[in-house]
Amino acid sequence: MLPKAIIHFEVGREKSVAAVERALKNKQSIFLVAQRDVLIEHPEISDLYDYGCVARITQVLRMPDGVIKVLARGEYRARLVKLVNANDYYSGVIEKCTIEPVKSKPVYVQTLLRKIKQQFEELESISNKFPPDVFDLVVSSNDLSTICDVVTANFPIPFDDKQFILEQLNIIKRAKLFLQLLERETKIAKIDKKISEQVKCQIDENQKEYYLREQLKAVSNELYGDDSIEGEIDEYRAKINSLNAKSEVKEKLNNEVSKLVKMPQGSHEATVVRTYLDTCIKLPWDSVTDTNINLQKAEKILERDFYGLKKVKERIIEMLAVYKANPNISGQIICLAGPPGVGKTHIGKTIAECMGRRYARIALGGVHDESEIRGHRKTYIGAMPGRIINAIASAGSSNPLILLDELDKLGSDYKGDPSAALLEVLDKEQNNAFCDHFIDMPYDLSKAVFIATANDVSRIPDALYDRLEIIELSSYTMNEKLNIAKKHLIPKQLKAHSLTTKDVTITADAVLGLINDYTREAGVRQLEREIATLCRKVTYKIQNGTANGKVTIKNSNITEFLGNRRFISDIYSTENQVGVINGLAWTGAGGKIMQLEVSALKGTGKVELTGSLGDVMKESAYSAISYVRSCAERYGIDPMFYKDTDLHVHATESAIKKDGPSAGVTITTALISALTGAKVRCNVALTGEVSIKGKVYPIGGLKEKTVAAYKAGIKTVLIPAMNKGDLEEIDEEVKQSLNIILVSTMDDVLKHTLIDFDTVVKEKELYITDTTPSTRPTANC
User: Fold this and answer.
1) pLDDT at 404 (0 to 100)
2) pTM for this one?
């Protein structure tokens, strides 16, 4: 409160209410003074300012809650001398303040008054904070003290500033301080007005945009019903803003949304943009799943899902250990290579489980278009991303395990080479910014783990092969198939057919019968189908009521369920014969015994090669003939046999195509046997490439070939000495059952394959020596 000012205030404190009641009874005068701290409920004299204002109460309004509203007018300044804290109200001794006389010149006072009025008018024009009566008073009055006191009392400034004006007994000093307050508040008002105008402008723009959008939404609802474009746009923008992606990605997607707004809703271009946005929003971008690799748990999972495959499991555990030590490592691209049905695809899925990553499979068999990998340009109707981006989207994570199945079945034509497109995917230096044609933005594939599978790695292009680490999976042995059937296949099929061990028993000899007589494969896929057939037959019997108790399937009664046995063992020589020998071959289904026959006939030196032989195998036959010609005299063979003897080389099972150099030693041995008459041991099988100088060179597929010999009951196997390092890959069960002999030359081979070879050679040499020089020796004597 200041003199000459009229203010209203509320009184709620009991003593203050009592003081007002007392003042109304005593000339309506009251001393109003401010507290230093408003939170003190019962103040002492030290809690109050020294200066206050004596006021006259002009009006009192009593409220229902006991609070009274007071309207009062300030009379004069006063200083509190003594405070009396009575029981009902505060009373005090005050001293009226004497205002110091003005000593300044009138012109200075007039100038100060004019400056205050100008500053007040400027402030009022900006803020419009004062009541009209205050404005009128300032304009009409020339009393400097009254203007300062009245305006300060109605000024929304901190109360300590008002208290400071109240305490100024010098009018000129009070006026200067008041002018400073006006100037300060004018600056604040200008800033406040500027901010308010900016906010108002922004609000107006927002309101305008909101109004127009609402109109557009209403029109869209009338035209398209629930499929309005505005709701769709808002939904797209919300999804884009919630993406865990870089700002560049969000910016491009928002640009596409802006394009969509301007397109006719049913146009083909709008459909293309919608497909593009839906695909990009579905991608996980920078979202990854947490991986927690537990090596002990991984070992248990591998043992649970797979029987055997010791080296493969070791390599997988090593890979998992590396990823556990360094989760950010990249560039380890493993290719599981092996015949069909050995579990390559299942291994890939199990690795994902061991790593705690999501799993996605890409079937590459028959893919011959580069766009299948990189995607199509989004400008085309019906365009879609490539299989890599689709796999990432389906996995819902940027760090899944992606299985590239049947990598060797990729093709190529005029549309491009998909294997070339995979080079960027599998290269750690490039795949952190893989660019799909449809997405048209770099996508980071470096966090993903890629596993490939293949049957024949020789069909993988060299550049792609160079990026792969090959892990060979060979065909299963008979014992491995038996254990896989007992531990995995039979329980799986029993569950699938709602059978239990109380309903049916498949004995071990029945499983062996299935393996030997009803399947011919490297893996166990056909074996599982045959077991499913048995379960199906048993289920039919149980449901038909013809099963008498528990059904037991043995090798002796298996034909009752599956019919006649379909396969016989590999055709191979079972007795010692001339020109008949057991070779070892590798096929896509694993190893195989290949019986080779050579006949030497009187003729004109022709060579017949039959049995669906490939070019490389034919070349091996001609190399064998050249070697025999060079060593004919040493082996007791007529050196001129190539002129009057026809040679017929035949590989059995003619319907199967055969190729490769590994039959070289087999053909050479059979050829020497046919020309010398020495019999070949029937319990020996051999493999190896031969040179025209008689040296034996290494071959591939040794593990599968030895397994084939083991299954066929062969006792002795001859292999190139240069393949000695591959013996570690052969299963212990096979190595213990076979007598594996390492050979380096054809002389080593002949010692172990031909019966009484030395005796036959001596007889031949004797015959050739006794022949008259003028008479040309004959091989068939």
Assistant:
1) 92
2) 0.60
